[in-house]
Amino acid sequence: MNAQIIFWIVFVLLALLVLFMDKKYNMLRDNSILYKKKPFSYARTQLTWWTVIVLSSFITILLKRRDIPTFDSSTLILLGISSATTIAARLTDMSDKDNVPSNLISQNSTGKNFIIDILSDNSGVSIHRLQTVIFNIVIGGWFIYKVTVNLVITGMDINKIIPVLEPNNLILIGLSAGTYAALKTTENKSNGKTPPATNVTDTSTNIPPV
Length: 210
What we know:
Elements: H1 3-25, H2 42-65, H3 73-99, H4 114-119, E1 120-121, E2 124-125, H5 127-151, H6 167-184
Antiparallel strand pairs: 1-2
Helix pairs in contact: 1-2, 2-3, 2-5, 3-6, 5-6
């Protein structure tokens, strides 16, 4: 069977597995405790996106060449950036859960739809999320194109079928992910909602009017 066909079969099967896991276990969603329909998580989606792409490439090479390729360091860094983004987002959610009232946590809002959920923070669709989504889609599309082209080149070195990402492209993805993670820490600190009233004791001295 043609290697490109094998790649797309594997890619679709993995994508269907992801959809099933999300439907059954909310794998791609935030841990909302207030609504049954949980919002989609950008960080989890990014990690899943690159995992599916890299794993599809790896499985296709294994099936076609009957050998295991060695990943270039750029591929490992790419997966590391996605993993670190997910970890940072998770730690932020855990911190906010302990320090912010549950009704003020943006992750506890009800999910709308996939696109709006991953592009939105507490104030609506945000430019930094849109930026990183576009970068990941474009670079991911290029990655898939290079793999599918390299798969059918006769005599291609098995370790060069998966493309190498240049350092500046990795920096671009890293900066986008870092901006997302940094701004996420502020989402529930100034989400535009009125916090519960607190009793404040006025210790000032009452001065009678003159």
